[in-house]
Amino acid sequence: MELILAIVIAVLTGTGIYLLLRARTFPVVMGLTLFTYAVNLFLFAMGRIRYNAPPVTNMADIHTDPLPQALVLTAIVIGFAMTAFVVVLSLRARADLGNDHVDGIDKPRPEKELTEQTEEANA
């Protein structure tokens, strides 16, 4: 089970970083979300996976550590708020700039459009 969890965390982290490096805002938002899921799973796995174990009751017994669960719950709330903020920010950038590139610069135009624009400007 630990190997599967480690592979899932690695895949989510790799995919999240790959999408974070894209030039469009939607893949960046999706990459941020996947990276957040990977961090949440990592924090949850730090508390050790225990089956049918009660929370802290007696220190002599095998128990489940509640701290990673509390950290994951806090990270979920912060991740949701950050995702909502980034979505609103990208929608505002799309409305103001007219494109959805992360840096706000559109791709170079083809030569045909450039020659048409220069002809219109010269006329």
From TrEMBL:
Stretches with biased composition (Basic and acidic residues): 99-115
The protein, known as: Na+/H+ antiporter subunit C
Membrane-protein topology: Multi-pass membrane protein
Keyword Ligase part of the UniProt annotation: no
Spans through the membrane: 6-21, 28-49, 69-91
Family: Belongs to the CPA3 antiporters (TC 2.A.63) subunit C family.
Pfam family, one: Oxidored_q2
Cellular component annotations (GO), alphabetically ordered: plasma membrane
Region annotation Disordered: where it falls in the sequence: 99-123
Subcellular location: Cell membrane
Assigned keywords, A-Z: Cell membrane, Membrane, Transmembrane, Transmembrane helix
Organism: Aliidiomarina taiwanensis
Main location: membrane
InterPro entries: CPA3_antiporter_subunitC, NUOK/Mnh_C1-like
Keyword Transmembrane: yes
Domain of life: Bacteria
